UniProtKB/TrEMBL annotation:
One of its GO terms (biological process) is protein transport. One of its GO terms (molecular function) is ribosome binding. InterPro entries: PPIase_dom_sf, PPIase_FKBP_dom, Trig_fac, Trigger_fac_C, Trigger_fac_C_sf, Trigger_fac_ribosome-bd_bac, Trigger_fac_ribosome-bd_sf, Trigger_fact/SurA_dom_sf. This is Trigger factor. It is an enzyme of class 5 (isomerase). Involved in protein export. Acts as a chaperone by maintaining the newly synthesized protein in an open conformation. Functions as a peptidyl-prolyl cis-trans isomerase. Its main location: cytoplasm. It catalyses: [protein]-peptidylproline (omega=180) = [protein]-peptidylproline (omega=0). Transmembrane segments: none annotated. Residues 309-336, 361-391 form a coiled coil.
Length: 450
């Protein structure tokens, strides 16, 4: 087999492949045996008509086409491997020549991964804060333990206070008209949790069971629902019930109830150890994010649109799955946010482009540094997954898609390990938040959780 490659533009190449005549002849024979079993020819039992009779009956073209379908896919894969191409989409195939006793020639136009121009990716300076746990951190953890193990008391004759869990019926209007999503019945709300739009919960403090209140709030100017951003809303709220948490005292008995520790002092030590380990993991994760971000920022690559669109589609599917858990359709989400699909795709584009560039840069570094999954690493990961899923490791290994993904994941992890190992740790900037130069992830607070 002969194969030549011509670069058409920054993302497309044209492969011209010539498959040798004996291989083509073998495919033609195979094509005849397939087709003769599918055609009823008068005077012959099905599958027994000679080839020249079949050709008279259906013509040569169907046989040639069938032979091409047999030959072209493996020949294309061989040509791709020979020229070390990385296709990112299905090829457009054109058959140039297919004849009896002659080589088969075809052309394949295909988009491939772009060239990545790496910048500096070794000796990158990354902030690495000290692992530190304060007494205040331990106190906050204990407070959370108290909250989680609190007993709940129903309040009937006292007004609602901050921290109480109230059950409310509410209906909101904007510009005097009802607005979709701004209503609910027997909705549980912890006052002071920040679940509702700012100013809502504070106006319910002091209300009693079955009391009705008018609550006025203004949605933030940058609120995610365009129809509500910057708008004043008026809610008619009826408080249906009040529940109050009663916290157990922090003593040795509490320590025994919530842990395997015998004393509060032992529990505080255990919490210190847990928080220290958690903080260490957070710092390591932040260092990995930071060093990857710097390596990616230093590289240049022209992103193929097909890869970006595919990543956008993946993010939209993830959004749909998350919405389904909340029993919301994508259409309902779009209506609530005042967006169409084109606008949603544009919202996802910056992160999708970042994802694709990161993937391409890490792959390029792995190639340059000869980083790949070893057989031992593959075996260890397969055995680990087999234990978790209670499957036979041999069965997992036979799943070629799983094996390919696993190899890739190991390679990417090892590449990030390499970047971290070759980075330079520096102390956090004065006044920094200890997040290695990266901001913490933040989430938007919805008007309601419904």
């Amino acid at each position: 087999m002969k194969a030549t490659v011509e670069k058409l533009d920054k993302h497309q190449v044209l492969l011209e492949v010539e498959v040798e005549a004996p291989r083509v002849q073998k495919a033609l024979d195979q094509a005849y045996r397939r087709l003769v079993k599918q055609v009823n020819i008068p005077g012959f039992r099905k599958g027994r008509a000679p080839r020249f009779i079949l050709e008279r009956y259906i013509g040569k073209e169907p046989i040639y086409n069938e032979a091409a379908e047999i030959v072209i896919p493996p020949a294309y894969e061989e040509a791709v491997a020979e020229h070390k191409l990385e296709p990112i989409d299905r090829p457009e195939v054109e058959i140039v020549k297919v004849e009896e006793g002659e080589p088969l020639i075809f052309k394949a136009r295909v988009e491939v991964k772009p060239e990545v121009h790496l910048g500096t990716y070794k000796d990158l300076e990354v902030e690495r804060p000290e692992v530190r746990v304060t007494e205040e951190d331990i106190d906050a953890y204990l407070k959370n333990l108290q909250e989680r193990n609190a007993t709940i008391k129903v309040i009937e004759d006292e007004p609602a206070a901050a921290g109480d869990i109230v059950s409310i019926d509410f209906k909101g209007t904007v510009d005097g008209e009802p607005f979709p999503g701004l209503e609910g019945n027997n909705y549980p709300l912890e006052l002071g949790s920040g679940t509702f739009v700012p100013g809502f919960e504070e106006q319910l403090v002091g209300a009693r069971v079955n009391e009705e209140r008018t609550v006025k709030v203004t949605f933030p100017a940058d609120y995610y629902q365009k129809g509500l951003a910057g708008k004043e809303a008026i809610f008619q709220v009826t408080l249906r019930g009040i529940k109050r948490k009663e916290l157990a005292p922090l003593d040795d008995e509490f320590a025994k109830d919530v842990s395997e520790c015998e004393t509060l002092a032992e529990l505080r030590q255990d919490i210190h150890r847990r928080l220290e380990e958690k903080r260490r993991q957070e710092i390591e994760a932040a260092v990995r994010r930071a060093v990857v971000a710097k390596a990616v920022a230093a590289a240049t690559v022209d992103l193929p649109e097909v890869m970006v669109k595919r990543r956008i589609e993946t993010r939209i599917r993830e959004l749909e799955r998350n919405l389904q858990l909340r029993k919301i359709t994508l259409e309902e989400f779009l209506n609530a946010t005042g967006k169409n699909m084109d606008e949603l795709e544009q919202d996802f584009r910056p992160e999708a482009e970042k994802d694709v560039k990161t993937e391409l840069v890490l792959e390029a570094i792995a190639r340059v540094e000869n980083i790949e999954a070893t057989e031992e690493e593959l075996r260890d990961e397969i055995e680990k997954m087999a234990r978790l899923t209670r499957q036979d490791p041999a069965e997992l290994r036979q799943n070629l898609d799983y094996l390919s993904v696993l190899k890739y994941d190991i390679m990417i992890k090892k590449t990030i390990d390499f970047l971290v190992e070759h980075s330079v740790a520096v102390p956090p900037r004065e006044g920094g938040d200890g997040e290695t130069g990266e901001s913490r992830e933040t989430g938007e607070t919805a008007a309601t959780e419904g």
